[in-house]
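Protein in question kept underneath.
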Amino acid sequence: MLELGKAEYELMYSSEDSFWWYKGMREITRVLFSRLGIMEDESREIFDLGCGTGYNLKFLMSHGETFGMEPSGQALRFLALRKPGNVVRADARALPFSDESFDLVCSFDVLEYILEETLVIEEIFRVLRNGGLVFIRDAAFPCLKGEHDRSSGIQRRYTASTLSTSLSQAGFKVLFSTYANFLLFPAIAGLRIFREHLLPHSQISKSDIYRSPRFLNGFLGKVMNLEALLHKTFRLPFGISVVVVGQKS
């Protein structure tokens, strides 16, 4: 597995609670959980595969007992500051859990970094209980690969079809798929394509995650909250991220 640099984890840790993308994606995830019948304060065991610096574990705690896995020592140092508990350092290709340990496995923007995705999905299938769900979110559309991907180490981008196929081949029944970051897609996609194909490449690639001016961060957050309302009813046809949910049966 590839490991991000210390600067990327430091930026993640300092931004997760306030940056519009992180906050917006959590709200969209909350809405999708509700739509899928994953309600708060229920008795279930949840596994966050690749929990990074730990803010999503805090979010998941309201839905059940949480367990996390993270391979990066750099990330774990930041994660320890959040004191989430129940976190192990391990490789996603060989999880240190027995068969059928969890009711829900979440993977937020993790598979896109892993070359051997098949091994990881097979491990997710193994540790899920029968009837359990896997909720996967990853970067969408290979045509959007660019400076952000090089900076953060993203290896691949998915479509709903390709990610669904990967889950189906591992034995999952695909229940649901949609895209996220739909309303901002034209602006973000246009900017990325422009920077990738019409501007000279910088020797130092930069992540799209940065500290926005307060007014811009607030405005983009409102756009994401508006999109979350759409997710209550619709499956969105495109976006910067793709979400696929599978069930082990």
Remarks:
- The two ends are 28 Å apart (CA to CA).
- The chain has a mean pLDDT of 90.
- The first strand starts at residue 45 and ends at 49.
- The domain at 6-247 is CATH 3.40.50.150 (Rossmann fold).
